[in-house]
Design brief:
The chain is α/β, with parallel strands linked by helices. It is built from 10 helices and 13 strands. It is globular and about 60 Å long.
């Protein structure tokens, strides 16, 4: 079905670079960060993901993280017809296992992390990991979280160039002098091209990880330090990702999509780090 869809819609990805991001948590935020950086570099960007699909700022409704192959290729055709120069997309384990993304060659495949999720479908963590790893069979380069406990399993046997990011492990892209407050996170990002001072309005250590992964992918695309710094600063929030909601009282309300044990723990730990009172 995927091959027929590609033919039917006239090979819509020909000549357009595609970045695919997989992992249990952080896919949405990472893709929005890459979009913001690329737009600072003057690119028109198409985005496919959990919240919505976007062509620039125009919203295209979506029902799932990664659409079925026919719908996916139809959206690619729309993006091509509207002059999109780069596509960044979330790639779910279901999509990889069911061949929804069959026939797509990713310029860069990114891996955020792996924790317990979707075991009703995959049955075991090993099956879940194997589904995620399929992304790299369709990628020219890999960008992988070196701090994730499954790093060795994810990278074992990879025969494509590997770029790593992380905080605890030695990595190509890393962070130090990390400060996390209610206003967000700031840190020094160490890259192969030198250090970049980063300010993020999304708080939490996971925000640092997502920024590192996004920056690694963008630098591989040829974007420079200014594009990365300005793009990450421009992205004020991502819908449903520690998103502050307006209130009329002396309390704060944050909306978050966390639906796995690890994601919920990360959110609670982050909020406790800057909460005043309970």
């Amino acid at each position: 079905m995927a091959e027929l869809a590609i033919e039917f819609y006239g090979h819509p990805l020909d000549g357009i670079p595609v970045i695919g991001i997989t992992g249990t948590n952080g896919k949405t935020t990472t893709t929005y960060m890459i979009k913001a950086i690329a737009e600072k570099a003057g690119y028109k960007v198409g985005l496919i993901g959990t919240i919505r699909n976007l062509i620039g700022d125009r919203i295209i409704p979506t029902d799932r993280t990664t659409p079925e192959s026919v719908e996916l290729q139809r959206v690619f055709r729309l993006m091509r017809d509207e002059g999109v120069q780069l596509i960044v997309m979330e790639v779910s384990s279901h999509a990889l296992d069911q061949d929804r993304v069959h026939g797509i060659e990713y310029l860069i495949g990114g891996f955020t992390n792996l924790t317990q999720d979707h075991l009703d479908y995959h049955k075991t963590l090993d099956n879940y990991l194997a589904a995620k790893k399929k992304l790299f069979l369709q990628s020219k380069r890999a960008v992988v979280n070196a701090d994730d406990p499954h790093f060795a399993s994810i990278t074992e046997g990879l025969d494509i160039p590997l770029t790593t990011f992380g905080i605890r492990e030695k990595a190509d892209f890393s962070a130090n002098d990390i400060e996390i407050t209610t206003a967000g996170a700031q840190f020094a990002m160490r890259t192969p091209e030198g250090s970049i001072n980063i300010k993020r309005s999304i708080p939490g250590l996971f925000s640092v990880f997502n920024a590192l992964g996004a920056a690694a992918a963008c630098m591989l695309l040829g974007f420079d330090a200014d594009h990365i710094r300005e793009g990450l600063a421009k992205l004020k929030s991502v819908s449903g990702r520690l998103e502050p909601l307006p209130t009329d009282g002396d309390y704060s309300v944050l909306l978050d999509y966390a639906h796995t044990p690890d994601a919920l723990e990360n959110v609670l730990r982050t909020v406790r780090g800057f909460a005043r009172g309970r």
